[in-house]
Amino acid sequence: MSLLVEPTIPSRRFHTTATPTLFDLGLSENPFPPLPSVIAAVNIALTQANRYPDFLPEELPRVIADHLGVSPDDVVVGAGATGVAMQVMRALGGGELLSSTPTFDGYPIMAEMAGMTLVPVPLDPAGNQDLTAMRRAVNRSTALIVLCRPHNPTGTVLDAAAVRSFLDAIPHRVPVILDEAYVEFLDPANRLDLHTLLHRHPNLLVLRTFSKAYGLAGLRIGYCVGRGKLIQRIRDQQLPFGIPTTSVAAVRAAYAATPELRDRINRINREREALRLSLRACAIDVPRSYANFLYLPGPGVATALRRAGIKAKAYPDGSARIAVGDPTAGRAVHTALANLR
Question: Is residue 202 part of a domain?
Answer without folding.
Answer: yes
